[in-house]
Amino acid sequence: MSSVLSLRMTMLLTLALYIGITSLALALILSLLGLNIIFIAILITVFHVIQWLIAPYVIESIYHVRELGEDEYPWLHRMLEDIVSRAKIKFKPKLMLAEISIPNAFAYGSPLTGPRVAVTRGLIENLHREEIRAVLGHEVGHLKHKDVQLMLFISLLPALFFIIGRYLMWSLLWGGIGDRRDRGGGIALAIVLAIACYAIYIVLLLIMLRYSRLREYFADYEAAINVPDGAKKLAAALVRIASVTGRLSKHTKSIVMKSSTFKALLISDPENDVLEGLTLRYGDDWRRDYQLALSLAYREEGGEEELFSTHPSLVKRIRALIELDKELSSRAIY
């Protein structure tokens, strides 16, 4: 499919740009400083891997996540099993429930816990079942494409430059740069390289966020092909999630702001993807929500608001889902 191929190519080019900038910048900095950065790189890698391994336990403790037994919400278990079968993946993730009133969902896991998909209490209580099915399709897409592992790898590289920049600044403060004969030159070089490291860190961070947004589109595609009318149902789900989130208090929404890492796991950003003033009744058919999505899809919107976001803007996602639905329908995928 043309749109999917275009998305794949964009992701590959973004990743190539990301790795290319990192490799060239590291080679230049190391050649100028003559530092052996292997030790620093190993420390950063070990830290991130440990963080990844224990993160599921931390998330489950903070956000009151527990495993759903087979006798709890059996329809939810059947949905997940059906999507896993359609997605043709060999594992079935554990189904979890987060006792959070914000309607949302997230995929996570590590080798210690295995893959997991969590839905919040707010999602179950506010969304139509077919909308929930599309949300599960999106989260299974993240697991299928190993997005948790990919984002871990990508997050290592900005951290490396940040640590090098901090190392250089501390060396300047404590007099560890340059010898007595060429102290001025060493200090000047350290200042320039420290500023360069921080600048590269910001550039890589922006590229990493863009890559994260592209992965969201890719997970949306998985929902579209593994759920009947999946693109429409996911667009409807995103509208209802944004509507309900918009009615919640700032205190309630601040619960998920404790960790920017956790916010990146969610299907929708509860800070940015908010619709104020909409009242969608529980039990309404998902098609009503989709009609609202259609009305929102082509409103004007500035692109700068998503620059520092892990998720595409609500309007752009809905627009992409509508176009994807047209493409899939024309090819009789369903």
Describe this structure in words.
The protein is α+β, with helices and mostly antiparallel strands. It has one domain (about 1-330). The protein is built from twelve helices and four strands; from the N terminus they run ααβαβββααααααααα. It has helices spanning about 1-35, 40-60, 75-85, 120-125, 130-145, 145-175, 185-225, 230-245, 250-255, 260-265, 285-295, 315-330; strands spanning about 65, 95-100, 105-110, 115-120. α1 (about 1-35) runs antiparallel to α7 (about 185-225) and α2 packs across α6 (about 145-175). The mean pLDDT is about 80.
Number of helices: 12
What is the element string, with H for helices and E for strands?
Answer: HHEHEEEHHHHHHHHH
For the sheet with most strands, the description reads: 4 strands, mixed
Query: Mean pLDDT, nearest integer?
Result: 82
Classify the helix fraction into a percent range: 55-70%
Determine the structural class based on helices, strands and strand pairing. alpha+beta
Low-confidence blocks of residues: none
